[in-house]
Amino acid sequence: MADIKFPHYFSDKPPEDIDYTPSGGGSRPNLPPRDREKHSQRLLRQLNQAWKKAERDAVSIQAREGVYLEFKSQKGFELPSHLLENRQQKIRFLSQRTEGEDKDQTTISTVYVPINKNQYFIKKIEEYARIDTKKGNPKNQNLVESIQSIKLALVKTLWQDEAPIPTESKDWCEVWLSNNNDGIESDFRELLTGCNIKAKENSIKFPERRVMLIWADINDLSNLLSKSPDIAEFRLAKETAHFWLEQTNVEQTEWVDDIVDRSDFQNISNVSICILDGGVNNGHRLIQPILVDKDLFTYDQNWGVNDTEPHGHGTLMSGLCGYGDLVEILNNNNPIFIEHILESCKILPPRGESNPKELWGDITCQTVSRAEIENPEYKRIHCMAVTSMEDRDRGRPSSWSGAIDIFSSGYNDENKRLFIICAGNVDTSESRIYPDGNRTHSVHDPAQSWNALTVGAITNKQIIDETDLSSYHPVASSGGLSPFSSTSFTWNNDTPFKPEIVMEGGNVAIDESEFYTVCDSLSLLSTSHQPQERQFDTIWATSASCALAAKLAAEIQIANPNAWPETIRGLMVHFAEWPEELKRQFLEEDTKTNRAKMLRICGYGVPNCQLSIQGDRNHFTLIVQQEIQPFKLNDNNNPIMNEMHLIQLPWPYSALEQLGELDIEIRITLSYFVEPSPGEVGWNDKFRYPSHGLRFELQAPTEDHDQFLRRINLAVREEGETVQPSSQSERWYFGKNSWGKGSIIHDRWPGSAAEIASSQNVAVYPTTGWWKTRKHLRCVEKQTRYSLIVSLATPEERTDINIYSMIVNEIGIKVPIQT
User: pTM for the whole thing?
Assistant: First the structure.
């Protein structure tokens, strides 16, 4: 019998490039009311006191070149950090943090000012006090009125961590230097030697930042702050945590024989899942065919490449990445087709050694680079279920997540990479207050990475077979959030939605006395790292869901060999859905506000594996992979917006129009990678974290081509022309307030066939980022890639309508049939 395929359609038609100017105007700064004279006098007094104190403290410090000042906003008001920097004067904005929430939130910024520029801010304040602009406003109003107080910065000002500063004893601390050149690191290492402060050899390089690790306490940090002009921030280094499993006593070698007999490895491809963990024991008979010795790598040759941990986490991950949950395979006799391979990158030291607080971003990237050098022809899916035990970042970039972003973006080598990372786990003790504990337990570092696909967990595991657990019942109902899954529910609204998707992660058993336990029957089954003793072992939590997601990503890549990493990530989100149980748990009232809250708990839901790989008769998917240049320099050498792309959708207008009021859903996903500017330098001004942003806009059914362009692009309007916003924007399911939280945007729009037929164009246009606002970094005219995924879906019950064939016939392509 013939198996009909419905492949996704990759458009090779170039989009229309159009000069772009944003249609919206700038917003007025949010400034507190001020008494001009009193406010300026108070700030001048504070500033002079800070300089006098700095002069006293610097008497015995020969190397003192300037001071660190702390600028603080009034509660509930903004502090425009970009106005605190003047690169020509060598006045550098370094870092920013917030205290409090909502109306009580205060912004604190740190600025480095050279000694010979001590009059810079004094002059700004004096001008504010006595000079008016042509519009009658005080000069420098936006800067001066936003400042509530100024004082000399201390170590705690530059401490960008919820963990306390080491005071009683030394600890490993991250020092973020204010530039990334080798000379600054060399000078700082010389200073460390003079101060007798120990440092790690590793460092991580970011745009405008270099991160080093030092063994220090608060006195050491204060000493460094008084002697170095190059410090941007301090943080506490982190230990990683990976989750080990209870061992089973069942050895079923016959099961392995059966799986091997049913497995077909003849069509093995060059698509690899690269597992970053504690090593893999590939002597297991299920692992041998897909993970050969030459594809075992390690960060430190002294660690070896094998899985030496007592519970074999890396080998368990490899079993799921290769085969999925073995329970499902063992419960049927179907043939098994394996077309991808595995690689292992050992980033954890073997058991018995101390778990060093290291620069994990550097370890992660270096180990993957070794695999890439050895196997440059592989198309990799990077799978990492190793996260920090702590969740104190709460969505803020860290050195580790920043390293993932910069490595995946191809900043250093133009090679884009897809990282799939587990969200991190909630302690099983939180099962007593499920699901409230999931809401408050934050996704772990580095899963806040903008470019990575972060995976949380749901569960359908409900049957408890253990006789000694007869009084227990599952904590989560079928289709509900796994008790293990962490969330971004408590994160700031500007942070990315994490996780983006959820997959099976197992359940927890609990009894009436609220005793809880992880048990075998509510877990997933995988390969044991000790096959000489047992063939199978259990795995659970977001490690398991992360491995299943990596397997799906590999299958998407095999079915769509030309798909970019951005596209694979987009397809996994594009067809995700919330199970009814998830909606029952968290969507008390179906509003856009509550949907946004759900996105912070379970992302866009559970991917539809089949539709992510290919369509069917009710689903057609168009994929556009393009490059765009968001910004350019104008005739005055100032950065401005450059271009937008207009993509014509290949809908069969007449055929759709004939379907009239038939319900059709259009889904759009825009996936792109950003280059990061990590460090606590703000989100809303020129020091923002992402290099750029992208958005999409769909032509409304009531608009023609020209009306659509004039609505979204000021550059094509007549002088003085105004247009009305689209009345269709409220029909988006998630809504535009949910767009731009990270580097992937997804939404869906229901309409009639006739309405969809009239929506013939999608625009992709840029929003600002540090490429544009940090002109001196010379990235203004860089290009970036994006993947735009657009699909149409007709109701599944309408078997008489084949939307796929209708569109394919319109495009004029042939659908391959595999026998």
Answer: 0.85
